[in-house]
Amino acid sequence: xxxxxxxxxxxxxxxxxxxxxxxxxxxxxxxxxxxxxxxxxxxxxxxxxxxxxxxxxxxxxxxxxxxxxxxxxxxxxxxxxxxxxxxxxxxxxxxxxxxxxxxxxxxxxxxxxxxxxxxxxxxxxxxxxxxxxxxxxxxxxxxxxxxxxxxxxxxxxxxx
Length: 160
Fold this sequence. Notes:
Elements: E1 4-5, E2 11-12, E3 22-24, E4 27-35, E5 41-49, E6 53-60, E7 63-75, E8 78-87, H1 94-124, H2 137-148
Antiparallel strand pairs: 1-2, 2-4, 3-4, 4-5, 5-6, 6-7, 7-8
C-alpha cells in the first residue's frame, strides 16, 4: 500500500480514492483513511453538494467532528467562505465539557488552517482542457458534473 501526499499534508492509506467515490445526482461523497498533518489518524466521509458546498465528518484522533463549508464568489478571483463545525456532545460532565471545548479549539484551528492553505489555490486556479492527468480523475468527473449542473436565470422573464 503506497501512501500519497496532498496539499494539506494528508498521507492517504490508498493509492487512489477514485474507485470509492459515490457519484450522486447533486454531488459526490467518498471515504478516506489517512494520517492528517502531524500523523493524526482520520477516517472521514466527505463530499461536495451542488457547486459550492463541501462537507466532511468522522474522527480526528479521538474526537468526532463534522464540518461544512459553503463558498461564495463575490467577484472573479475572490472566495467568501462560510463554515460550520459540529462535535459530538458528551454526557454533560465537567470532564466531557472540557474535552468538548478542547476538541472545538482543535477543530476550529484545523478549519482555519485548511481554509488558509486552500485560499491561494481557490483564488488562482484555472483548468485547461487537456491539461488534467490520471491523478485528476475525480476532478475531471467533477468538472463534467459542473458543466451539466442546472443553471438558473431568475431575471429571464424581465428581459425583452
